[in-house]
Amino acid sequence: MYKKILAAVNEHFNSEIAARYALDLARVCDAKLYLQFVAGRRQSRSDMDTAEEAMRRLFAEATEKQIPVERIVVTGDPVQEIVSTVRDEAIELAFVSTRKEDVKKRFYAGTVARKLSVRLPCSVALVRAVRVGHIHPARILVPLKAQIDHLEERTFFIAKVAEVFHAKVFLFHAPRPVTRLFHGPIHLAPGEWETRLPKDVAELIESLHRYKVEFERRIIPGAVGKSITIEAAAKRHDLIVMGASQRSLWASFLKGNPVEDVLRQTPCDLIILNPKHED
User: What number does CATH give the domain 133-269?
Assistant: First the structure.
């Protein structure tokens, strides 16, 4: 599915971590890797040197792993230049990192990460690095919502990330509590929740079986964002892979939602996939 993957690199170390996720995914997908650094016109020489050194490290590692790789270094507006590269090179997936200070802003308002997540014409993997130096996750938490768009691409991405790290996947679904008029919440047994599994979740589970992905699943009703972060912390997961559409990214910006909650509070590395491939 992915034959051309781009990683946006800058002077921040988080971008190098995001690029390493891109590098490893390119390896298992037999894809070409594009490393792009866009130098701002007023950027300091020190920041440019830091970014270019990261580019050299990533290029050397990709070459050592026999991954086809290309470096792109230009000057200009990061969003415009990366969008241009994605279109010119027919990139299918782009990895974009967030910065620690971005978390203080409401869904990264005005940041390069948010602009790229929305404007790029390819699928986007938005990466928030929390555990610096720990990019070999053994336990991957995958929260699932009731309605899942681009189901085939999401399943493929989960399967390939698990393959990269020989990791086990833990599916997590936090449905709304069942209530009855005048009686409040109804407590259901795990088996009863299974019978209420949404159609899209069931189809994704079936797709993971086809990819032969090792996984477990848990269903715990409650507030979605809070439930995800508690689950990740309590079970000591190493990485969260969750989905977002362009629509939900804009919704986060306007009024907030579980995606934004997890972005702010995640106890481990987080990848938010905004898929755009047609199934």
Answer: 3.40.50.620
Model-level pTM?
0.86
- Hey, where are the domains in the chain? 1-129, 133-269
pLDDT string in tens for the chain (279-residue length): 899 999 999 999 899 999 999 999 999 999 999 999 999 888 899 999 999 999 999 999 999 999 999 999 999 999 999 999 999 999 999 999 986 655 555 555 567 888 888 889 999 999 998 877 667 899 999 998 878 888 899 999 999 999 999 999 999 887 655 455 444 454 544 554 455 677 888 888 899 999 999 998 887 766 677 888 899 999 999 999 998 755 555 455 444 567 777 888 899 999 999 998 765
Sign of CA dihedral 221, 224, 226, 229: positive
- Cα angle for residues 190, 194, 200 (degrees, 5° grid): 145
- The CATH code belonging to domain 1-129 is 3.40.50.620
Instruction: Tell me how far apart the alpha carbons of residues 196 and 175 are, in angstroms, rounded to a whole number.
Output: 9
